[in-house]
Amino acid sequence: MADYYEVLGVDRSASDDDIKKAYRKMSRKYHPDLAGPEFEEQYKEVNNAYEVLSDPEKRRMYDAGVDPNNPNAGGFGGGFGMGDMGDIFGQFFGGAFGGGGQGPIPRTQPGRDSLASASVDLKTVVFGGTAHVKINTFGLCQECGGSGAVGGAQPATCPDCHGQGYMQKVVRTMLGQMMTSAPCERCEGHGTIILNPCPSCMGHGRVRTTRTVGVTIPAGISDNSRLRLANQGEVG
Hints:
Elements: H1 4-8, H2 16-30, H3 32-35, H4 40-53, H5 56-63, H6 82-93, H7 122-127, E1 129-140, E2 156-157, E3 166-173, E4 176-183, E5 192-193, E6 206-217
Antiparallel strand pairs: 1-6, 2-5, 3-4
Helix pairs in contact: 2-4
């Protein structure tokens, strides 16, 4: 499979603008009308490379080891591509190899439950009533509205992994070349980065807060009983 990044002379982490600039440069260098008819094949390679790397979907396919311009060729000889290897090894290694269906990790995760204790008097135990309980947990940052960025700005697409949340690389093993993937170090697998973190929550979108919640105590409640309150745990 042709190395389109090498054809354009850019890194695998190159941005869309870098790819466009490289294409213009290489296109002028190998254009048959400027360089001569003997460079027609190189000119075609440059155009093929740009066609793939300038299209986000085709670029994802190519990074996974499948050439969109020649999908049957694959990254190995005999029509056995890296994408196929990823499908096979993904069944055994949980998608650690290319094509395992990985994606960015959502920044918002389900909040955890919170546990608080309270003591009530005998009258409340017998007849029921309301107990006011203080809950110390994580709540939504009011400064950024939970976005983690100053002014509530939305996270930007990570320039290293292009929003995929993971990076892929080709490694040599006793079985030949294989493509592995790992969470992107720059965005920690989220696919996005916060350019200007909120100073109140340090970019997390949550801050520790203490609030008082009214809990309805049923009549005849026994000692060490647990009552579950919906939507009163940590903010995700």
